[in-house]
Design brief:
The chain has 247 residues and is of the alpha+beta class. The chain has 2 helices and 15 strands. It has 2 domains: 32 residues; 211 residues, Ribbon (Umud Fragment, subunit A). Strands 1, 2, 3, 4, 12, 13, 14 and 15 form an 8-stranded antiparallel β-sheet that branches. A 4-stranded antiparallel β-sheet has the order 7-6-5-11, with no helix packed on it.
Length: 247
């Protein structure tokens, strides 16, 4: 074998090793640190919009099987666990179908009593303050939400965020009282009239199903623009949302 061929093979092998190392590093980062997610629906408007790309902090609450790629059944519960805070925006696995990721806002902690009465959130028998905060119009074709009333809620821990209330008589505006079981959490979408959450089929979410806390929007495309449509990026980029912290 000539020296020239040997050098080519050596260079090829070095390139392969670099690629393998990069893939392993990416897998480690994705597993233990930050994982990218895309927002596919309007259930968290106006906080998160369709076309937002976010980083999810996976070490915020420790790790469960759902923190790992392909969710291997290596252990149960959580390790290095840390309690989430009321008001956190969290990615979790749907209890009825753990292959599906949901993102909602944490409203009820274990032992809490949660209810909606005439569109007002009740926590442990007390109404959560709700103040009018303007109107919202979406650029999402399937959920235009033109001039939807916005209301700012403030939780008992001081966490404050905007919600949408498109209709005062939606089926989620008046509910039974939910008592959150130990080891579970109660979630709601900020787009209150257009969110499948713990008020409905999602139910209570086990602590094991938490994937991580939404931390930052790193990319955002409006007007139903696909990530692959690079030529549309300049006109449809939501520049004001880039590197925005998720509240």
């Amino acid at each position: 074998m000539s020296e020239k061929v040997e050098k080519k093979q050596s260079a090829l092998w070095e390139n392969i090793k670099v690629i393998i190392q990069a893939l392993l590093l990416a897998m480690v980062i994705r597993t233990v640190a930050f994982q990218p997610f895309t927002i596919p629906s309007g259930s968290m408007m106006p906080t998160l919009l369709v076309g937002d790309y976010i980083f999810v902090n996976k070490f915020a609450y420790g790790y469960s099987r759902y923190s790992m790629p392909f969710s291997p059944d290596l252990f149960s519960g959580r390790i290095l666990a840390s309690e989430p805070k009321r008001g956190d925006v969290i990615v979790f696995r749907l209890p009825t179908d753990p292959d599906v990721d949901y993102i909602k806002r944490l409203i009820g902690l274990p032992g809490d009593r949660v209810q909606m009465i005439n569109g007002v959130l009740q926590l442990n028998g007390q109404p959560v303050p709700k103040m009018a905060d303007g109107n919202f119009t979406s650029d999402y074709r399937l959920d235009p939400g033109s001039d939807v009333p916005v209301f700012r809620e403030t939780l008992d821990n001081g966490r404050t965020y905007d919600t949408l209330d498109q209709s005062p008589v939606s089926r989620g505006d008046n509910t039974r009282e939910f008592i959150v079981p130990e080891g579970h959490y109660f979630f709601m979408g900020d787009n209150r009239d257009n969110s499948l959450d713990s008020r409905f089929d999602v139910g209570y979410v086990p602590a094991e199903n938490l994937v991580g806390r939404a931390s930052m929007i790193f990319f955002s495309l409006g007007n139903d623009t696909s990530f692959r449509e690079i030529w549309k990026w300049p006109a449809n980029m939501r520049w004001d949302r880039l590197f925005k912290v998720v509240d």
